[in-house]
Design brief:
By secondary structure, this protein is of the alpha+beta class. The strands form two sheets. It has a four-stranded antiparallel sheet with strand order 4-5-1-6. Strands 2-3 form a two-stranded antiparallel sheet. It contains five helices and six strands. The chain is elongated. The relative contact order is 0.16. A hairpin with a 4-residue loop joins strand 4 and strand 5. Helix content is 29%, strand content 22%.
Amino acid sequence: MGRLNQRLPEGLRVHRWQIHPEHASPLMELALASHWCWAAPPSIRSRIKAGIQAFRDRQPWPWRRKEGDSEAALDLHTVLTALDLTDDGLRFTTAMGPHHAINPLKVLAAVLGGEAIDYQGLVRLSVDQKADPRVGQADRYQPKLKNMYEDAVLLGGGSNVVLIDEDDDEPIRLG
């Protein structure tokens, strides 16, 4: 990890490394929530506090976001599940999933005002994930991998298996 971190861009660091098995679910299917922190400048902390209170008081908080050529209405309370101003900065949590992978900078701009570019320096602290049901069932996938390996050895090696090329797969030409 030390050598990898030397090559990563400034601000990006690997703290923990886990092997993701080949048979495991894609990580996006397992992600539940992302935890973020933004070092809010002291000069706008009162505006941020007012924005947080307005967000908490208003149910729902409709937000229109562009999806391709159309706009979709979304209640930001379903996406932004925690929002607190601490000594470290503005900490918040966004829901993840197929319909919730939203740009956190745009979420902040929608709640606190301004533009997404105003919230530079955002840091993702962690991602919560649900347990992967496939990882516990590795034995279901292992025989398939073993059979694939055996087939590759038989077909690629000097075995007595003879491949027959039948003409059944020839294209049919019409007209």
